[in-house]
Write a structure and sequence with these properties.
Largest interface: A-B, 42 and 46 residues
Distance between the termini of chain A: 21 Å
Helix content of chain A: 25-40%
Distance between the termini of chain B: 20 Å
Radius of gyration of chain A: 19 Å
Oligomer: heterodimer
Low-confidence stretches of chain A: none
Strand order of the largest sheet of chain B: 6-5-4-7-8
Shape of chain A: globular
Strand content of chain A: 15-25%
Structural class of chain A: alpha/beta
Number of helices of chain B: 1
Largest sheet of chain A: 5 strands, mixed
Number of strands of chain A: 11
Number of strands of chain B: 8
Strand content of chain B: 35-45%
Mean pLDDT of chain B: 96
Low-confidence stretches of chain B: none
Strand order of the largest sheet of chain A: 1-7-4-2-3
Radius of gyration of chain B: 15 Å
Shape of chain B: globular
Structural class of chain B: mainly beta
Mean pLDDT of chain A: 97
Chain lengths: ~400, ~120
């Protein structure tokens, strides 16, 4: 049994805001839901399943379902950080395949920018109920330095350089210049990145993603509903999800959970990495992209630095166009969780609705991959492969 | 780089014996009584086989697996691989951060925190 072909992404919406001090988080969720319904050509009453993650205010899906006044027969609130929404598409498709729902809404929203969160560098309070906290929290593992340890180890093992990592940001900025909603639209150079202030060695400020308010929504529907709508058909082909931690002390920072989720997704879809025309790769930091490109099998392990160099990720220039919306590095990282925007831009590409300057010709197979949590300590990973039918 | 003051650790029933031993200068890890593998961070059930585990003294010798200085915040996060095998998260202290490297030998140097609890930090050997 497989989810291949059992669900279609019929609605996709990215909220245009990047700073929303005058809106509530619940309101942003609902606005995204409305946008996705309009994109799909569906009514609110068509929704019979709902999935959200920890960014949704309240207890799991309950408060948001009440706020939006949705009656559903299926819900899920799997929270694996920024990778949640990619896994949610697979979960929605499973529910549809099992006859539990026909039309599943997924929403994300948050306001870390308005709330002034120092997302990457602020030490977090200890929590004795979390098993690792009595051993780690006082050492101040924050987002930036835990990802930086992954980069430092990659450099040590494989000779990866800061200039190679910088090419990832350069490619994202080339794409973001065409996105009128992107938070950072200036094209930057390798020199700009490596000369930007060091945040946590070896990651510079321009190796880090933006902190933005906003949100997004997706609607996954049954094949019957998808074919009744007027939108291009984006079919779910395969998916994988996995956690990765410290293995009881056998820490290995040379790969992420993507090393398991990628092969599972490709096997389910029945395709190879070289078949992918466009990839949305989670870009919390440049190193996140580099490691996941290796994990997905787009290049050999350790060769990510060479692979991303010289514009190889720039649409129209390189072999693997990535994050053509500008990604988290330049466009948007709503709620500090980038998974949903990864799927949304993949849907745009498959529909042929990306900006003309970055649209991949004949884009029939796309991948979205994300991580949630910290790839240097413990995280979730999720991969999704989609096809234009 | 100004050194960040390390706060006292939060405690759980599984961590209290470790920090009690630390106050006597003893650095303890846990090893499985069934599969005999050591692990980190310490757990009552072995993360490899769910066997019962027990404390044992460790050397405090290790090498840096990876690290990252946050210069403005004044501290260096690191993973140190202990001579006994497991790799643990820690801070590197009393070091010239520009001379640190993956693979470098380090040794345990306790940092006593505000409430008197020592936490296991490391310094170049």
């Amino acid at each position: 049994m497989s989810i291949k072909g059992r669900g279609y992404i019929v609605g996709a919406y990215e909220h245009p805001t990047r700073k929303a001090p005058d809106k509530s988080v619940s309101q942003l969720h609902a606005e995204c839901a409305k946008g996705a319904l309009e994109d799909a050509g569906l009514k609110k009453s068509d929704i019979d399943g709902y999935i959200c993650a920890g960014d949704a205010p309240g207890m799991g899906p309950i408060n948001m379902l009440d706020y939006m006044n949705l009656k559903v027969g299926y819900f899920d609130s799997t929270d694996v950080g920024g990778s949640s929404y990619i896994a949610h598409v697979a979960h929605a498709t499973q529910a549809i395949a099992m006859g539990k729902a026909t039309c599943v809404l997924i929403t994300l929203a948050g306001r870390p920018r308005s709330e002034g969160q120092a997302t990457g560098t602020a030490a977090r309070p200890g929590n004795p109920a979390i098993a690792d906290s009595p051993w780690e929290t006082h050492f101040a593992p924050v987002t930036a330095n835990v990802y930086a340890m992954v980069a430092a180890r990659h450099m040590y093992e494989y000779g990866t350089t800061s200039e190679q990592l910088a090419w990832i940001k350069v490619a994202a900025s080339h794409h973001a210049q065409w996105n009128e909603n992107a938070m950072l639209r200036n094209v930057v150079t390798v020199e700009d990145v490596v000369n930007s202030p060091m945040v946590s060695d070896p990651l510079h400020r321009l190796d880090c993603c933006v902190i933005s308010d906003g949100g997004g929504a997706l609607i996954v529907a049954s094949p019957e509903i998808a074919r009744s709508l007027k939108r291009p058909l984006v079919k779910v082909m395969g998916a994988g999800e996995a956690p990765k931690g410290q293995f009881g002390g056998n820490v290995d920072l040379t790969f992420s959970g993507g090393a398991w989720t990628g092969p599972r997704a490709f096997a389910e879809a029945g395709i190879r990495p070289s078949d992918i025309k466009y990839a949305s790769i989670y870009d919390s930091f440049t190193i996140t992209v580099l490691q996941q490109i290796e994990d997905m099998g787009f290049c050999e392990r350790g060769q990510g630095g060479r692979f991303v160099s010289d514009g190889n990720l720039i649409s129209g220039v390189g072999k693997l166009p990535f994050n053509t919306d500008g990604g988290g590095l330049c466009n948007n990282h709503p709620a500090n969780r980038g998974g949903i925007t990864k799927v949304i831009e993949a849907v745009r590409q498959l529909r042929g609705e990306a900006h003309p300057k970055v649209q991949v010709p004949n884009c029939d197979l796309a991948l979205a991959h994300g991580t949630g949590g910290l790839i240097g300590s413990r995280h979730g990973s999720a991969t999704l492969i989609m096809e234009r039918e | 780089m100004a050194d960040r003051i390390i706060p006292s650790p939060v405690q759980s029933p599984e961590s209290e014996p470790f920090y009690a031993a630390a106050k006597e200068g003893k650095f303890m890890i846990r090893r499985c009584k069934d599969c005999h593998k050591p692990h980190w961070y310490p757990r009552s059930l072995c993360p490899f086989c769910f066997g019962e585990t027990d404390w044992e003294a460790a050397s405090g010798d290790g090498i840096i697996y990876s690290y990252s200085p946050m210069r403005r915040a004044g501290y260096t996060i690191a993973y140190v691989t202990l001579k006994e095998g497991p790799t643990m998260m820690t801070n590197i202290i009393d070091a010239d951060v520009d001379k640190l490297a993956c693979g470098q030998a380090v040794k345990l140097k306790w940092t006593v925190t505000e409430d008197g609890t020592p936490v296991p930090t490391f310094t170049p050997a």
